[in-house]
Amino acid sequence: MTHNMVNILLGCVLGLTMSCTSGQVETEPEPVVNPGDQQVAGASSRSDDGFEIHRGVNLECWFSQIGNRTPDPEYYTPETIRQLKQWGFDHIRLCVGEEKIYDNKLNPIENNWKLLYAIMDECVAQDMRIIFDLHESRDWDCNHTDVKHVMFSDYSWLIKTWTEALHRDLAKYPNNVLAYDIINEPASSALTNPKYSWNEIATAVIKAIREVEPNRTLVVCGDNWANPDENFLQLNIPADPHVIASVHFYQPNNLCFYREPWGKYAEYDGPIHYPGYILQRAEWNKWLREWKEANPGKQPLTDFTNWCNDRYDYSKMHRAIQECKEHCDQLGIKFMLGEFGTTFYLASDVRNAWYTDVVKVCDELGVPYSNWGVKGAFGLYDWNGKGPQRNVFDTDLSKPNTTLINILTGKGNSGIRPIYVD
To answer: What was the pLDDT predicted at 123?
Structure first.
């Protein structure tokens, strides 16, 4: 996930293994062939031309957003997948940085691929779907657009990465198991006079992949960090029954990124509400007065005055998501929420109300989703009460947030209408 407006999300520093809680015991999985074989066993009995997803989660900050560090072999393991399956998730979005799996000539880094294959093969064994998300590349990184932005002037490397390297290393997984998310959160607005528009780049990349994989499901983010705004409504790519457009939904920002320590919402720790008025002027004025008394001569990172008396509720959320879906319907492509979430620093009743409404809207509109993520401040575990601050493990991996997990997996909800790309 991740956005210019928030920089990098908390949780990328965690290197702990995911704990396993009790749950329904799964049947014995079918054997999985070795990664080097031509086909992967244990896939769904559905047609190889169909890719079906509904409720998923991002495997974040393992192979992406970790700087120069090497992916931790214990951060996510096949046990993670078994736990997610028991909880009720049906797919993962596997966030991967190109430089973690290839050298500068696109030769595979074998040890890292073994870790990814172990996760993907366990998804096959558990009858879960996979969205392989190219979260960062040498030519584009949504969190470092000042140095990694070549894609908007020359997208040939992105095409080569997909049609030569990733096609070579991923095509063995059937179409009904694996989809490709072609690049995370493009943002032409971060650049001055980009040579190509995102529509031009996305259309070219889709066309190139279609030459080697005509029926593979492809996920395409909207421009402007995949925000559900006017930039998404300008997405214009050819109709394709095997394309899913993706929005990353963190609305409203001052609620979703509450106290995240990486960006402009780090300092305010006063009341936040949902639904209704997110922040009232009296609350902000009180907090600001006390903050200035404690920090004489300074100004906070963000002036929340413009946020005061701003309402956000189910109807506003529904309208925003519905507009994006209707746009995709007109284009002749599918639609999903590829990311969404709030930090666990929010009061639990506020956080649960927001998540409940997102899930309700998606179920009513038939929109699948992938929560951001499993670990960290946006994840499925409770806060340990010690943060937020940089480089601190704020997550208590012994305490899965069962209320949130139940909301996200639809327990007690009705009207499930999964997406099916055939």
So the answer is: 98
Instruction: Report d(CA 201, CA 197) in Å as an integer.
Output: 6
Q: Coil, strand or helix: which one is 318?
A: helix
Report the C-alpha gap between 215 and 121 in whole angstroms.
21
Taking 3-state DSSP, the helix, strand and coil percentages for the chain, each rounded to the nearest 5, stand at 30, 20, 50
Type of residue numbered 272 = I
Lookup: tokens for 162: 């997909």
DSSP conformational letter for 6: T
Per-residue confidence (pLDDT) for residue 393, from 0 to 100: 55
Q: Is 353 helix (H, G, I), strand (E, B) or coil?
A: helix
Q: Whole-model pTM?
A: 0.86
Instruction: Name the one residue in this structure whose structure tokens are 């210019």.
Output: 4
Structure tokens at 192: 């001055």
**16 secondary structure, DSSP code:** P
56: Cβ–Cβ under 8 A, 6 or more apart, which residues? 89, 90, 91, 92, 93, 129, 131, 368, 369, 370, 371
Average confidence score pLDDT of the chain: 85
- Tally DSSP H helices, then E strands, for the chain: 11, 14
pLDDT of residue 44: 28
Q: How many CB atoms lie within 10 A of CB 86?
A: 16
Q: Do residues 408 and 402 lie in contact, with contact meaning Cβ atoms separated by under 8 Å? A: no
Pick the more confident residue, 181 or 261: 181
Q: Which two tokens stand for residue 94?
A: 């596997």
CA distance 89 to 148: 33
Q: 241 CB contacts (<8 Å, ≥6 apart)?
A: 332, 333, 334, 421, 422
Burial class (CB in 10 A: 0-12, 13-18, 19+), 28: exposed
Which residue stretches of 275-401 are H helix?
281-294, 314-331, 348-365
Residues shown for the chain? 422
Q: Is the pLDDT of residue 10 over 70?
A: no
CB–CB of 108/117 below 8 Å?
A: no
SS3 call for 218: strand
Q: Using one digit for the tens of pLDDT, what is the confidence trace for 308-323?
A: 888 999 999 999 999 9
Across 30-44, 90-104, 382-396, the highest mean pLDDT is recorded for 90-104
**Average of per-residue pLDDT across 271-296:** 95
For residue 418, say if its preceding peptide bond is cis, omega within 30 degrees of 0. Answer: no
Bridge partners (DSSP) of residue 3 are 7
